[in-house]
Amino acid sequence: MTQSRTVKFYPHAKFTLPIIFSSLIVVFLLPAYGQTQTGLKKIRLALPTKTVSFLAFYVAHHKGFYKDEGVELEPIIMQPALASTAVLTGDIDYNGAVTGVIGAAVRDRPMKAVLFTVARPLQYLMSKKEIKEPRELKGKKIAGSSPGGTVTFLTVLVLKRLGLDPERDVSLNPMGGTGASRLAALESGVVDAVILESPDNIAAQQRGFHELIFFGDLIEFPQNGFGTSEKKIRENPDEILKMVRATLRGLMFIWDKKNHDQVLEIIMKEMRPINAAMAKESLGQVMRVITKDGSVKLESIQVLIDLVRENTKVTRPVPVGQVTDFSFLEKAQRELGLR
Predict the structure, then answer these.
(1) What b/e string do you get for 287-300 counting C-beta neighbours within 10 Å, with b at 16 or more?
(2) Cβ pair 271, 6 in contact under 8 A
(3) What are phi and psi of 116, to 5 degrees?
(4) CA 101 vs CA 6, 79, 228, 264, 278: distances in Å
């Protein structure tokens, strides 16, 4: 049996990218990479946060699927837009927030998404317990994600679909930091509602707050997976195929119910300090949104593209094929018997 591996984050390692980080960005970088003593190639994957929506990566890591491909995976917590810049400079290999990849590609930066692990947003609008209906948000303060972040854009879209004007009816305050920090803002009364991912939404419910909206019920929108630079696609296609194949094996492992006890153990290790009950609920929630084979509907990708275009004032049309490359996914699917 493959020994379980815990994803490690190194907060003090040197990073060479010459960018001034804002106070809202927290980056945990790892040592310089290359070939390890075991002969594995170190690959840096940027993730925007540590939540259960990235479960496919954690499972593939713990079960040794990346190592099976000769890869020593190094996850790094990094804001999606910054991660895309780091991918283009070569300081990071892959951006796990495909919203950041597609956002960069829409703005004519040479990047493409190659795989999707989540088909719908796993975000929840949690409110004070006295707010029972979405219409009761009128005149209230809502804490979104980082300024200009995709979750903030999504919140605007959700509010509009609920018949609320995000500029007049509510005060939407983009807020950086973790889900725990946004939950703390809700507890302190600074805001009336917050956007949280699993398992932070479960913690909020346990503290008496109310789940108003599950974003995935209203929007089909691919958030997670990974993408890379067109340069890497041209120069290192074998590496990309290995990354795609290992991540797909992670998805396949999650979908096999006989593996769920092992998946729950991984959730508890990576999402500490949650208990078994919270882990089980988180798994049930993520099963509502993860893909089975790394594919999503093309029209849902177009929703993301158009959302980015609207918020970045890009007027020209951008087709799905301009921001994606599914050749690696299709090949890996065939090799793994998924198509």
Answers:
(1) eebbbebbbbeeeb
(2) no
(3) -120, 130
(4) 26, 12, 7, 29, 31
Q: What is the pTM of this model?
A: 0.82
Residue pair 239/232 in contact (Cβ under 8 Å)? The answer is: yes
* Mean pLDDT, rounded, of the chain: 86
CA–CA–CA angle 181, 186, 188 (5° rounding): 90
Q: Where are the alpha helices (DSSP H) in 63-163?
A: 65-68, 80-89, 98-106, 150-161
Extract the tokens encoding 229. Answer: 């630079």
Instruction: Give the model confidence (pLDDT) of 137-160 as tens digits.
Output: 999 999 876 655 667 778 888 888
Largest CA distance in the chain: 58
Tell me how far CA of residue 339 lies from CA of 327, 332, 334, in angstroms: 13, 9, 5
**Does residue 193 contact residue 131 with C-beta atoms inside 8 Å?**
yes
Tokens representing 153? 């854009």
- 158: tokens are 């959700």
- Predicted confidence at residue 312, as pLDDT, reads 83
Q: Within its chain, how far is the Cα of 309 from the centroid?
A: 20
Q: Which residues contact 158 (CB under 8 A, 6 or more apart)?
A: 125, 213, 215, 218, 219
